[in-house]
Amino acid sequence: MANARSTVNRLRILGAISAIEGLFYLVYACLVVIGISREGLTGPSQVSNVSGVTLEVLIFAMFGAAMLLVSFGWFGRRRWARAPFALAQVLVLVVSVPLIGATDVWQQVIALSVSIVALVGSFIAFTPRVTQQLHGDEVAPESN
């Protein structure tokens, strides 16, 4: 009973991580649109053009929607949720780890926090209990 509850809790944690990341990406896309509507395109011309900003908004909106879908996959105990989740955590780490060396303390704290969550989520996603829950009878139970 405790093992089943622990496994369900792990799946809920993974679903929550995915949902939070998805919401973050959607909010970021909205903030870019709001910033552009208030201030217009500012900055170097290489990154401040209509097509570039449109692409940025679309990428973050699609990534956010995909992470929300992954969240539903975790809550529904779907096997397919693990692969996109793992890829997303790698992408999060690629961005957050270099930011740990930022000059602003608040950026360092956020980057370190996000990195830890991504590492913990990646670890939980590949624990034997989660694998057993996702694969059902296909995987022999382990003593974890």
Topology diagram in text:
Blueprint: H1 2-39, H2 50-75, H3 82-99, H4 105-125, H5 128-135
Helix pairs in contact: 1-2, 1-4, 3-4
Average of the residue pLDDT scores = 87
Low-pLDDT sequence parts: none
Strand pairing plus helix content: what structural class? mainly alpha
Rg (CA only): 18 Å
SSE string, helices as H and strands as E = HHHHH
SS elements, strand count: 0
- Count of folded domains: 1
What does this molecule look like?
This protein is mainly alpha-helical. The protein has one domain (2-138). 77% of the residues lie in helices and 0% in strands. The chain contains five helices and no strands. The protein has helices at 2-39, 50-75, 82-99, 105-125, 128-135. Helix 1 (2-39) runs antiparallel to helix 2 and helix 1 packs antiparallel against helix 4. The chain is globular and about 55 Å long. The two termini are 14 Å apart.
Properties at a glance:
144 residues
Short account of what is shown:
The protein has 144 residues and is mainly alpha-helical. It has five helices and no strands.
